[in-house]
Amino acid sequence: MRKLFALLLVLALLPVVPARAAKNEITVYNWGQYISDGTDGSLDVIAAFEAETGIHVNYLTYDSNESLYTKLKTGGASYDVIIPSDYMIGRLIEEDMLEPLNFDNIPNYQYVDEAFRNTAYDPENRYSVPYTWGTVGVIYNSKYVDEADAGSWDLLWNSKYAGKILMFDNNRDAFAIAESLLGYSLNTTDEASLRQCAQKLVEQKPILQGHVMDQIYAKMEREEAWIAPYYAGDYLYMVEENPALEFYFPEEGFNIFIDAMCIPKGAANQEGAEAFINFLCSPEICGQNLEYLGYSSPLSAAKDYMDPELAENPIAYPSDEILAKGESFSALPTETSQLMDSLWLSVKTAGSDVTRYLIAAGILVAAAAGLTIFLKLRRKRRLARRGISRRM
Prior knowledge:
The protein is of the alpha/beta class. Helix content is about 45%, strand content about 15%.
């Protein structure tokens, strides 16, 4: 009994390492190339946060809202902070996949502009804090693309530039382009309209170089591709590497989005996550972070810490007249999301059935030819053997 008591006493006195480790560590899951990292003399946001708080950050990236959703839905990984887009936040809230925030731990929320509070995707301001906002448009290389062809989404279907056009590799952004071009709402739930959009995207495939996300940076900067739809903030990043790149807001309309910081259900360190969110809402940190990214700030106070040229840039901060042509995504009903997923799969695989048929047909033809040759040779051998036996 004494040995057992002594053992229990020792165990009771041992430090609870996992709990202490959790308080000093968080895992952040963010879009690729979406935080100032210290390059080119910029602020290293994560290093600055770690130095101020003593909390270590494990930093991971994804390339689309849909891949983020799949990771969260299938489990197998734990994150403390995620930064999805507006419509995806609405979906995560609806499916009870986010933790309510304790705003006592996020005092810098006071700096968030009223325009970014009580949003349609989080009307009670319980689950999210805005990180950036922005728009989607067309990036093109002025060295190779005729200015007269620019202005509309239809540039992405212009066969003159076949093999040099890129397209979004996620269904919501890709369908939004087809919806704008065909005159539909970016939040349509009409099946016939969505099927028309899918057909429009299939028609585009023969002239595409490929569907991409983060690969766009290298391809456009190195002029491997000349035309692509993408986010305005990323264009401002890319044009620094290649001044020949230009950007426009398509005349048919475009998506306006907000990306916001959230804590997924079951996060290991909610308090540490809220400290990270609060840090990013500091006007000084936000200003330096978004000056590097080129994205638009939901904190007007952050502009005081930006280069005035960026704070007044008409692409980062478009006029009210231009913004009036934009539309934000809403969370779609489950059945509509499933239909779009299915239609997107049909878009991505369109043409592959023909390819498989041609390959299979080729194999059959080759096999038939081989069989014919084999039979002829066997017949000749038999005849030869018969001739020998007669001579014997």
